[in-house]
């Protein structure tokens, strides 16, 4: 009864958390299996960011529940943001055995020890102001052996009015920089060649404020970059209000800090940004973009955009499209606004843009971004990039793919190349989503 299968939904932080959970369980003698059919316990690490993310998981839970007609011993556990948000309703309404929030993963072995004793569903969802799982070295799941995530902080206290994360992840706290650096060193020694430092707002990373060994985010990046020039460093996510000139200067200094910034805009309208509690104006956002372009040569820039937030009108929507054109994003994640229970927006504003209109605006945003991505990719034709090889193409076993520093995916012939190698690739063709090229010496 000790075979565990972990399924992960949601953001990169959840991927990293699943590896922490795997590590905790392995240490207690549980076996991780990569086949649901071999599992005695299924843990689903979940996301609450939009309603459809939750609906997907609810559907999955009922599929797993019906599996129990044949395998009565199967236990189902829900971890992550839905566990925190929905609490014991997951036990009462959805028949799950275990509910564990993002700061309680160390309790899982203890909770599992009660399973099978007829005590019903078990729950642990207390949020912590200090837990960072600092010393736990993750047990990799579905890893390519080349790229890895390292959580550097947890929680968020920005309280963007639409967002559930501050409620599901709790107070912001930074992880000891020494454990971050040693995790990156160990990954490099194991053959990994790229680490992505993760947090909801990495620019507010701060260890030991006011002390002699204070480390801010720019300093942390430089410490990780100095481990080895062959280790690439990325990070996500930056809040536009907090990204600093010091960070941009550090990015420009180290060749192995990737020239790519994900800077979520959300809306191009000052009125909507204010209602969203984003704490910057469109003008201030554009100033940051200009600083990036001035400081870092050829920096890739991507963003997140929400269509149809409360009271958004066609003028606001037009301002979003304008700013997208002005910045010329290389890529973007684009979403329809989804009201989340108990958030500031749910309490204060009416979700008054119809679903049909949200979809229409979203399609306009997506179409524009497709055009911008295509333009950006066309500019790369003829250029040569250093690419870190990450895997085989899904479409052809004869092709490999990797990314350049700017985070663009490039496909090229396999030849006798291996994952984890750096190659120079000259781009000769593109779509809006992918670059195609050939390796050159
Ligand atoms: N901490 C990160 C991102 C968190 S969630 C940041 O601040 O950038 C990722 C993205 O999901 C957000 O940037 C936002 O665009 C989107 N999102 C968050 N809440 C949402 C909601 N209620 N409806 C639609 N999209 C949402
Ligand atoms: Fe949510 Fe805003 Fe925090 Fe990002 S910064 S996680 S959008 S509250
Ligand atoms: Fe989703 Fe929680 Fe991440 S809500 S986006 S899994 S922090």
TrEMBL record:
[4Fe-4S] cluster 2 binds at residues 156, 160, 163. GO terms for cellular component: cytosol. Gene3D superfamilies: Methylthiotransferase, N-terminal domain, tm_1862 like domain. Binds 2 [4Fe-4S] clusters. One cluster is coordinated with 3 cysteines and an exchangeable S-adenosyl-L-methionine. It catalyses: N(6)-dimethylallyladenosine(37) in tRNA + (sulfur carrier)-SH + AH2 + 2 S-adenosyl-L-methionine = 2-methylsulfanyl-N(6)-dimethylallyladenosine(37) in tRNA + (sulfur carrier)-H + 5'-deoxyadenosine + L-methionine + A + S-adenosyl-L-homocysteine + 2 H(+). Its EC number is 2.8.4.3. The keyword Metal-binding applies. InterPro entries: Elp3/MiaA/NifB-like_rSAM (IPR006638), Methylthiotransferase (IPR005839), Methylthiotransferase_CS (IPR020612), Methylthiotransferase_N (IPR013848), Methylthiotransferase_N_sf (IPR038135), MiaB_methiolase (IPR006463), rSAM (IPR007197), rSAM_horseshoe (IPR023404). It is an enzyme of class 2 (transferase). Monomer. Catalyzes the methylthiolation of N6-(dimethylallyl)adenosine (i(6)A), leading to the formation of 2-methylthio-N6-(dimethylallyl)adenosine (ms(2)i(6)A) at position 37 in tRNAs that read codons beginning with uridine. NCBIfam families: miaB-methiolase, MiaB/RimO family radical SAM methylthiotransferase. This is tRNA-2-methylthio-N(6)-dimethylallyladenosine synthase. It comes from Candidatus Onthomorpha intestinigallinarum.
């Amino acid at each position: 009864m000790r075979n565990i299968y972990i399924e992960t939904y949601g953001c990169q932080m959840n991927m990293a958390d699943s590896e922490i959970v795997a590590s905790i369980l392995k240490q207690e003698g549980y076996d991780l299996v990569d086949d649901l059919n071999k599992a005695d316990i299924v843990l689903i690490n979940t996301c609450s960011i939009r309603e459809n993310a939750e609906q997907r998981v609810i559907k999955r839970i009922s599929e797993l529940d019906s599996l129990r007609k044949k395998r009565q011993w199967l236990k189902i556990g829900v971890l992550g943001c839905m566990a925190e948000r929905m609490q014991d309703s997951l036990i009462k309404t959805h028949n799950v055995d275990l509910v564990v929030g993002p700061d309680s993963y160390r309790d899982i072995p203890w909770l599992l020890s009660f399973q099978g004793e007829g005590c019903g569903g078990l729950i642990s969802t207390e949020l912590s102001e200090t837990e960072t799982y600092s010393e736990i070295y993750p047990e990799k799941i579905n890893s390519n052996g080349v790229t890895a995530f390292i959580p550097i902080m947890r929680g968020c206290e920005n309280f963007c009015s639409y967002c559930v994360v501050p409620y599901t992840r709790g107070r912001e706290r930074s992880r000891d920089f020494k454990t971050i650096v040693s995790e990156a060193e160990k990954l490099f020694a194991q053959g990994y060649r790229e680490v992505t430092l993760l947090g909801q707002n990495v620019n507010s990373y701060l260890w030991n404020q006011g002390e002699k060994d204070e480390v801010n985010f720019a300093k942390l990046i430089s410490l990780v970059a100095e481990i080895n020039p062959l280790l690439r460093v990325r990070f996500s996510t930056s809040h536009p209000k907090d990204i600093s000139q010091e960070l941009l200067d550090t990015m420009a200094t180290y060749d192995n800090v990737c020239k790519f910034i994900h800077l979520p805009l959300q809306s191009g309208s000052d009125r909507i940004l204010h209602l969203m509690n984003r704490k910057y104006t469109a003008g201030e956002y554009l100033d940051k973009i200009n600083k990036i372009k001035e400081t870092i040569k050829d920096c890739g820039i991507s963003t997140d955009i929400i269509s149809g937030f409360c009271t958004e009108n066609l003028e606001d929507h037009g301002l979003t499209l304008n700013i997208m054109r002005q910045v010329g994003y290389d890529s973007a994640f684009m979403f329809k606004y989804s009201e989340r229970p108990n958030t500031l927006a749910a309490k204060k504003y009416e979700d008054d843009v119809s679903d049909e209109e949200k979809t229409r605006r979203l399609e306009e945003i997506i179409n524009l971004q497709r055009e911008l991505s295509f333009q950006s990719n066309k500019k790369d034709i003829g250029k040569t990039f250093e690419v870190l090889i990450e895997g085989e193409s899904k479409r052809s076993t004869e092709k490999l793919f990797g990314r350049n520093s700017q985070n663009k995916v490039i496909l090229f012939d396999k030849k006798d190349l291996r994952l984890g190698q750096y190659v120079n690739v000259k781009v000769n063709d593109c779509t809006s989503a992918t670059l195609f090229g050939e390796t050159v010496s």
